Amino acid sequence: MKHRYACDCHNHSSCSPDASDAPAAMAARARELGLYAHTLTDHCECQKYAQRYRSRVEEAWIQMEGVSQAGGPRFYRGIELGQPNQDTEAAKEALRGRGYDFVIGSIHNIRDYEDFFFLDYTGKPAGYIDGLLSAYWEELLELIAWGDFDALGHLTYPLRYIEGDHGIPVDLKKHQDAVDSVLKGLVRGGKALEVNTSGLRQKIGRALPDLPILRRYRELGGRLVTLGSDAHSTADLGRGIDQGMELLQAAGFTEFTLYIQRQPRQLPLE
Ligand SMILES: [Zn+2]
Ligand SMILES: [Zn+2]
């Protein structure tokens, strides 16, 4: 890694249904890369908790404890809660009794819809995509109001698919007020905004979110920013983190945030 304090605080092991490598393999790769810190954040899709995620969350915790006990530099235990606003009881249960270092709150699907990854965006009536995005911002506000998380994951997630994979341009200016409400909510709630670098290696070709939103968050008083590759394999771990740190500098930040026992710790962007 180019930066001394490069941290990857959003990535998945085989405890997530869509990822391939064991927690120990992810941690070994983090050491090989020379990451300053590595936080593993396997999925828990809250609305599917009882059917699909309860046992995975338990398994991930056990595996992460094993990695921690094996020693080694700065390994932290995290979780990515998907849609906790849609099933707050499940979210509460997923967190109960486990001393996570870091909790990411994400919205992958709006209520009664599939993950944005699976939606069909072509041949839809005018306003369909703007409608989906409006519902997405609304759910982010619900997530922030719920509040038991540390950083908001990949704020512009739907664009990864709408713009990136389907090539349909979106004018975010139309959504500026809604995006501002989300950013203000984060600042007010003392929550971090994540720079998710997965977009840099995917078709969309930019971080989630990108420079204008990072600048705006800072302008609104936001100082807590985390970095994650969203790797689903050892091969992608740490990818884009150096660029993400440079992006934050370009947005005017001098520090970024690492969560330990759910407390923010500011580190220099060096
Ligand atoms: Zn996610
Ligand atoms: Zn993720």
What would your notes on this structure say?
It is a single chain. With 270 residues, the protein is α/β, with parallel strands linked by helices. The chain has one domain: TIM Barrel (Alpha-Beta Barrel), CATH 3.20.20.140. The protein has helices at residues 23-33, 49-69, 88-95, 128-146, 157-165, 176-189, 211-219, 241-250; strands spanning 7-8, 37-45, 75-82, 102-106, 151-152, 192-196, 225-228, 255-260, 263-268. The strands form two sheets. The protein has a seven-stranded parallel β-sheet. Strands 8-9 form a two-stranded antiparallel sheet. Strand 8 (255-260) and strand 9 (263-268) form a beta hairpin. Helix 4 (128-146) packs parallel to helix 6. The protein is globular and about 55 Å long. The structure holds zinc ion (2 copies). One zinc ion binds at residues 80, 106, 108, 153-154.
Which architecture does the CATH hierarchy give at level 2?
Alpha-Beta Barrel
CATH top level class name: Alpha Beta
- Strand segment count: 9
Number of helices: 8
How many structural domains in the coordinates?
Answer: 1
The gyration radius over C-alpha positions equals: 17 Å
> What profile does the largest beta sheet have?
7 strands, parallel
Small molecules bound in the structure, each named once: zinc ion
Report the β-strand fraction as a percent range.
15-25%
CATH topology: TIM Barrel
